[in-house]
Inverse folding.
């Protein structure tokens, strides 16, 4: 008897985005399965952020479609967003609110039952339980990142989009954040789409990666497969090679 | 429409205001400055210009307080949006299951809360310093108030739409937009005083003009002009429809051009 096919959480079909006649993403297709962590890699301007924004409904694709949980994102955005969450190094929660206030607001938006208990559990899980009554703006970069992750997990998302979650963190805190993401992902079987410029993140966290260059897919596979296929010594070298030549082969 | 989500967004603004007392200063300071300057000026004019100006202090203070309803309602929408931009929280809201209508209604509620703080204080100060009681307008105050509130919300949507379109460079519009229409809204003088005369036709196309004309009639003659009320209400329906359309069009354009994320993470 053959094993059941993995459940598809996210499917992008031929996503294309043009800005002023310039194609920044060109017929980008991929699928993300339940419990899988997919890394989206590429140099600045490769199209990762544009792809991420389209997947969140923040940018309209020029053409192509996005199916999340088998539903068209354009038609069922609100329904889909209830089961999705997002965290980015480039967003923040209002700095003048207490940590618990920020989380309470989002818990209410997502309709989290037993919000107070849930917030306490998540703060403990991310090892920032003692920050509950701290002012958000006074948190360190590492603490803010973990708070953002806390917000991103409030609704027990089935799909999590993480945009450079370890950017601007020192190696120690970045390691802690990675470990937390891995632990939560394993425990809950969340599908994660992950962008990062930190190849250590990608190697440790991602099951599969897609390299983009100027809006096109250059290669995809497991980090190990890509390194061996490219005959480079590390994923970082592959990244540099693609950024400079647009290909993994000589 | 989900009232839980609307209440969550309103709760956030209440947290913001109560956690930042300087924001409350803004709600009280400028209206107080206006009230004192206009109040003293009208007392001076009244004392020196004879009996012809007996209604002057009521006209001006009443107009000023009611204009503040428009301004605070507009600010409720536009500044609430900017609060999300300033705190880099806009994307968190836009990727949450929040409908645009729910977001807008939450900002309308914030406008009402801002009005409650400012207008109540202004009314009390006007009563104690100038013996002007806005409640002497009687029941017509309510339809005037509601119409001005709606005009303010519409202006707030237009301000936010312009900020969405042109980004943070257009932030000052959050404060400027109401003043584009103030000179021709006949707030402090009758519509007949507006020059050149063709501009009076433009003035009459604004709902606010009919409210302030109506207010003066109540103060002067003690009669409620149903025609002014009907005109204001009808124009407000059109005004809200147009403002909503502009807001949605700009939001769509922003998404189409991928500007929302750039704007939100600047």
């Amino acid at each position: 008897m053959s094993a059941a096919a993995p459940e598809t959480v996210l499917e992008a079909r031929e996503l294309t985005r043009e800005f002023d006649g310039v194609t920044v993403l060109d017929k980008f297709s991929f699928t993300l399965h339940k419990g899988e962590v997919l890394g989206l890699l590429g140099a600045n301007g490769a199209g990762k952020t544009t792809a991420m924004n389209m997947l969140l409904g923040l940018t309209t694709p020029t053409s192509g479609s996005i199916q999340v949980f088998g539903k068209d994102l354009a038609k069922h955005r609100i329904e889909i967003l209830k089961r999705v969450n997002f965290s980015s190094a480039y967003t923040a929660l209002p700095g003048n609110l207490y940590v618990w206030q920020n989380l309470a607001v989002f818990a209410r938006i997502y309709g989290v039952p037993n919000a107070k208990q849930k917030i306490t559990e998540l703060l403990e899980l991310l090892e920032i339980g003692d920050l509950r009554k701290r002012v958000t703006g006074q948190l360190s970069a590492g603490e803010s990142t973990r708070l953002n992750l806390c917000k991103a997990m409030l609704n027990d998302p089935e799909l999590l989009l993480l945009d450079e979650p370890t950017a601007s963190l020192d190696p120690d805190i970045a390691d802690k954040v990675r470990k937390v993401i891995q632990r939560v992902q394993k425990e809950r079987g969340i599908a994660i789409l992950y962008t990062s410029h930190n190849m250590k993140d990608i190697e440790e966290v991602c099951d599969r990666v897609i390299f983009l260059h100027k809006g096109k897919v250059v290669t995809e596979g497991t980090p190990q497969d890509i390194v061996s296929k490219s005959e480079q010594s590390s994923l970082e070298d592959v990244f540099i090679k693609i950024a400079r030549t647009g290909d993994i082969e000589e | 429409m989900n009232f839980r989500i609307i209440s969550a967004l309103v709760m956030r603004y209440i947290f913001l205001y109560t956690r930042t007392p300087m924001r409350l200063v803004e709600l009280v300071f400028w209206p107080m400055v206006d009230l004192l300057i206009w109040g003293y000026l009208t007392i001076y004019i009244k004392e020196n210009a004879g009996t012809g100006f007996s209604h002057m202090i009521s006209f001006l203070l009443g107009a000023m307080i009611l204009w503040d309803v428009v301004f605070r309602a507009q600010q409720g929408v536009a500044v609430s949006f900017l609060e999300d931009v300033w705190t880099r929280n806009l994307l968190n809201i836009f990727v949450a299951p929040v409908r645009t209508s729910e977001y807008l209604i939450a900002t309308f509620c914030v406008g009402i809360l801002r009005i409650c703080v400012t207008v109540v204080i202004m009314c009390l100060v006007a009563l104690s310093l100038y013996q002007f009681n806005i409640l002497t307008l009687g029941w017509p105050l309510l339809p005037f108030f509601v119409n001005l509130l709606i005009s303010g919300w519409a202006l707030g949507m237009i301000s936010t739409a312009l900020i969405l379109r042109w980004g943070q460079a257009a932030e000052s519009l959050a404060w400027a937009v109401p003043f584009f229409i103030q000179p021709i809204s006949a707030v402090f003088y009758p519509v007949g005083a507006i020059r050149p005369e063709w501009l009076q036709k433009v003035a009459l196309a604004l709902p606010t003009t009919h409210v302030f004309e109506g207010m003066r009639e109540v103060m002067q003659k003690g009669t409620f002009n149903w025609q002014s009320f009907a005109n204001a209400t009808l124009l407000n329906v059109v005004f809200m429809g147009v403002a909503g359309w502009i807001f949605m069009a700009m939001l769509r354009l922003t998404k189409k051009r991928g500007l929302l994320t750039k704007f939100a993470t600047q």
Q: What stands out?
A: Residues 76 and 115 of chain A are 25 Å apart (CA to CA). Chain A touches chain B through 37 residues (CB under 8 Å). The beta strands of chain A are 8-19, 22-33, 37-41, 63-68, 71-72, 84-88, 159-163, 191-195, 208-213, 216-221. Chain A has a mean pLDDT of 92.
